[in-house]
Amino acid sequence: MSRALSWARPAVAAAVLAVVVLRLGSGPFLDGVRALDARTVSAVAAIFFVTTVCGAWRWKIVAGGFGLRLSLPTAVATYYRCLFLNVTLPSGVAGDVHRGISHGRDVRDVGRAARAVIWERAAGQAVQVVLTIAILSVLPSPVRSYMPLVAAACVVAAVGSFLVLARWQRLRDAVAADVRNALLHENALVAVVLATTVAVLGYAVTFLIAAHTVGVTAPLSRLLPLALLAILAMVLPSIAGWGPREGATAWVFSAAGLGADRGAATAVAYGVLVLAASLPGALVLLAEWLPRHVVSRPESAADA
Fold first, then answer.
1. Which pLDDT tens digits describe the chain residue by residue (304 residues)?
2. Fewest CB within a 10 Å sphere: which of 32, 127, 195, 267?
3. Every domain of the chain and the residues it spans
């Protein structure tokens, strides 16, 4: 069952991407790449550094609540590596899995390190959802009228989850302990909310830059809700980030009267910008691989 599910997720993402290409053609995708220049990439790289530091700081805070040592420079380098793997490998979460396992090996506790990564991602996404609903409830967008229903559904889901946990004491106690460790120690919750808010705004600014480069001239009040919707769609299963992002962006741009082709071009430009900005993660991988390779070769020669 789990093996079938692992294949189903990228298959759905590929299907969404294929539908967008069939409906709009290759033009928007080529436009999204051609519109980029060195100045745009440099600006996004600077923004990406800020968002990466925010994510790394959030991870450091959560890991510290679990009693795991993690310096901020190490967290930033590891987070860059994580993001690079996420945008280059099919699953879209391989970097987070690698991050949890590698940190767990460093601190000799893979279980707690993995839980720290899970709660860091979950807390970040929860804050992102709340922030998105709040902004979409205020600014005009194709989904503004549905926001009260969405907010009510989130409340019902939270209450339902609480009631389910209440039936299994061991699971409830484990989750409660993890939440206390991850988010309720000292000022952890405030820091997590602050770091996530800055990161989400950084992603939104990157999206706005991508839209500008492909010729979208709508005002900020009109584009920001669309950016948040597209960014929220990126948490769905994808192929290295591709698939749901392009489908959601094409749809929201079409619903907002900006053209599905401009939406797809914006999504492509965003994806290429994020890939370019995450390249320091490749350097981190190379820096980790080279010492092991250099050390292993003399040992192999001596054995021979």
1. 445 545 555 565 566 656 666 666 666 667 677 778 889 999 999 999 999 999 999 999 999 999 999 999 999 999 999 999 988 887 678 889 999 999 999 999 999 999 999 999 999 999 999 999 999 888 888 888 878 888 888 888 888 887 777 777 777 788 888 888 888 887 889 999 999 999 999 999 999 999 999 888 888 888 999 999 888 888 776 666 676 788 888 888 888 888 888 888 898 899 889 999 999 999 998 888 776 655 555 554 445 4
2. 127
3. 12-285
